[in-house]
């Protein structure tokens, strides 16, 4: 039982982390697009 609880807790944390990673990537992609359209590509 305890093992299952730990797995659930870790699974939730990993899901949240993955969601944040995806969001961060989307934000950086939109920033790149914005900079690209302005011609500020580094």
From TrEMBL:
Protein name: Uncharacterized protein
């Amino acid at each position: 039982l305890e093992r299952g609880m730990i797995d659930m807790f870790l699974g939730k944390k990993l899901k949240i982390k993955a969601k944040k990673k995806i969001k961060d990537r989307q934000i950086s992609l939109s920033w790149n697009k914005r900079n690209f359209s302005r011609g500020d590509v580094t």
